[in-house]
Protein 1
Amino acid sequence: MTPVVQGRGLEVECDSAEFYFNAFDARYKSDPDSAAYFIDIAIARAEGCNDGERQVRYLLEKAFLISEGEKSETYSQVSNVALALALAHGDSLTLARTYRKFGTLHNEFSKFDSAIYMYNNALKYISPGRDSLELIKVLTRRGITYDSQGVYDKAISDYLKALLICEDLNFYEEISGLYNNIAIVYKKQDDLPAAINYYHKARELAMELENEESMAICNVNIGLLEKDLGNYAISDSLFHSSLAYFDKSYFDYGIALVLHNLGELKRKEGNNQEALDYYQRSQKYASARSFKQIEANNSFSMARLYVDERKNSLALRHAHHSLHLATELNMKQEQSEANKILSEIYEISGRPGLALQYYKAYHQQEDSLYNEKKSAIINQLKTIYESTQKDAEISLLKKEQALQETELAASIKQRRFLVILSIALIVIFGLLAFMYTKTRRYNERLKWKREEISKQKLKIEAKQQELILKNKDLVKLSQEKDDLINIVAHDLRSPLNQVKGLLSILKMEVNADKKPETQLYFNNIDLAIDTLRGRINKILDVELINADKMSLKLEQVNPGIVLENVQSIFKGQAASKGIKINNLCNGFDKTMKADYNFTIQIMENLVSNAIKFSKSGEDITLKISETSGHIRLHVKDQGPGITKDDRARLFKKYSRLSAKPTANEKSIGLGLAIVKKYVESMGGEVWCESNIGKGSEFIVQFAKA
């Protein structure tokens, strides 16, 4: 039982550690003192359950918390403990994460070289195929550090490497962040069109992801760039779009920020009253929510505006408020600007002593800022120089190594040449002997093959002669078959016509008999005769087509009249099945080049088929469409549709389809074959478009007359 109790105890301890870590995470921003208390408990509990990975993670989070208080020595001690633990107990991925977070901490304190060193170490422990997300994070963080150093080419390079991985893995949120980072670099290089391009990419991706918050943030960034480019109308539209979203989502910081930006925009446009209104609205949100940075910027902007309007007392009040907040927040650039405008206001007000006092403060801060910028530039140049020097040293070493390798390779090559030459001579003599033997055998085999080919040639010629004779017999039989079909069809049609006439006389003679059964019998006999005669006519039509004996009369044909006639022919037959024929081409007055009678037969066949395969309550639609040089006649039904396999043999003679007529109507499979022959003989085209369960549409196309 003891191991179980110990194991359970460890599990509870680790669960407790995670509980306290979550409590720390919830208070990280709002209550740093409470957060510090909870993270210390979480670290102790993680140590109690011997979970090295958690200890490392918690220690690094504590280091980040300490770093925000700018206690650099303490944060460094804590992060060093985390790194030592990771090296002792962590796997490769834990080490990579530890080095990355260590690098981020160094970056926070502007220790850029140390940060780069940490990121490079992190990359050593990453397996690209397995730890792709961690690789993306390291490359992104290293790119941010290069950006801070001003080494923009390396920053862009890291961002693009991370971007390629994200695109392969469809990490859309990370892609959006990288687009923004790339845009920031281009903006710092004053390449505003490139920056706008990447901000637009980020916004398009946010639209695809339906992430309204990201879209609104992108619109603010793009709006600021458009303002700098002088595109005030575009900037105004983007700011208002973001404002609408922030207002809807109760994002007060966003509202205050956008209102301030709108004030800046209106001041650039020369509309001071509207600018003042936006500043004041922004100030209400900023002061109510303690957004002190925005409050300081609003106060400075209003002071500047009141100076322009010679309202010195109001300008003085807002300038002092801006200076107070900038000093509290250690905003050095804003302090400098506030001192400068205060000096201007006191000079205008005729108070030279105070004007001089604030002017001196302004110059002191400008000198301080200049020295900081100069130091940063020197550090950047130093980094670039050291990087370039290292690259040059590496290049020189590579050249020396290449030279040594070349000399060694030349020596080895000479020795190899002598060995290869000796071997080659032996091989050549061996090959010559082998080739002589092989050639002699090949010639003997070739002679035998030629004799075999001669024998086979004689056999093939005999077979070919036999096939010619058989082909003549087949042609003769085919002709006899066609003649027989014509004779039989004609011989059958004459008696049928006589039976049809006799039936008509018989119907008149027994017309007095009003029994429904009698009339039904006559109708069935009449229908059977018409069906048989129709099939005989189709057989004769096919033979006529095959024999190329069709007599075409191409003329100007109005397709609207054709479809009206076909509709009237089949209206009764369709109504008997509960089917409605809709004609959508009434009044069509253009003509096409075709034979009128053949066109009628074509459309009759297509409409007849549509009726066969339609159920009661379904519609058949007739319509006409045009292209630049053709007119198309459409017959569309709501039947079962035609399968892909059936469409492949749709226009072949005697083909049978898988779909069956809805009223068990009979068919010999010649109708569509005749349609295709008729259409093509008139220089037209016919095809079918169909989806299973959604009906079929037959389209016949002729040239315009």
Protein 2
Amino acid sequence: MAAEELYDRAFFERASECSVEAWLAFLGHRWNALVLYHLAQGPKRFGGLATCLPTVTAKVLGERLAALERRGLVMRQGPERTAAYALTPAGRDLMPILNALEVWSRPLTPTAA
């Protein structure tokens, strides 16, 4: 068996331990990437984000913001009632990667008929 085959098998056997796999799963969770996209345009209050994402419930948006905050991609600024959400430096660093992934995915994504 070739060394490359051994590497590939070992990689897929421990995929659950792979940081890239873990981050892709997190970012692929519904709404996470869209929240990041809208915050990349500048800080927004909860209501502003809710307006940008009209089909997400307030409960789910709150959960997504909390998860993004725990992962260090989003920070809440200001007092609770008037808080604005913004990308952290790690969140800003992630945006070129997400933008490149979006460009890469365009020709591979089927269009609605």
Protein 3
Amino acid sequence: MKYILPFLLSLVIPGLGQIIVKKVLKGIFMVALLALAFLLLEGFYLYVTAGVILIWSLVDLFFIIKNRDGNAAALKGIGFTFILLFLIIPVFFVIGYSTISSGLGISENVYFNEKNTINEMDEITGGLERYYSRNNSYPEDYIKFASAKPVRKNWITDYWGNEYKYILIEKDKYQIISSGEDMKFDTDDDIIKGNF
């Protein structure tokens, strides 16, 4: 751990490893240079400058430890650091990103499913009204009506994937119902449209 800690600290903030191995002025200079880069630069130039300072810090630590404790100690420290940098940290970032993005996707889908279903039901009621104006009645078979034109094929199910319930109350009255998020009809989250 004695050889690994300076490399790990320099991986987090370049220059801290130099302070640990008692090269204080050089370490403070690297930390100050990094802070100055964050204050003055942005975008691509900031990333390049920070990367150069990081590489400089790690290479400098390698030579400090190599001169002080030998080649094996320096290789052990920098080897572990590169394994951490190129294998372990990216794996955690990928796992974290996928977990967060899938969690956000679920919450967004719940909101957008309801909103999209309401919009689609408005389109369906418009289509039913056009059907009524041509035929003087609403369709008796909703599936046949929705399947009649390719544009309407997605009108069979809501955005949760549940079939709409179509109820023809009278010749001139109807209801179209989505079971909502819970996928059960006759509950509080049902979405109901029509001219009833």
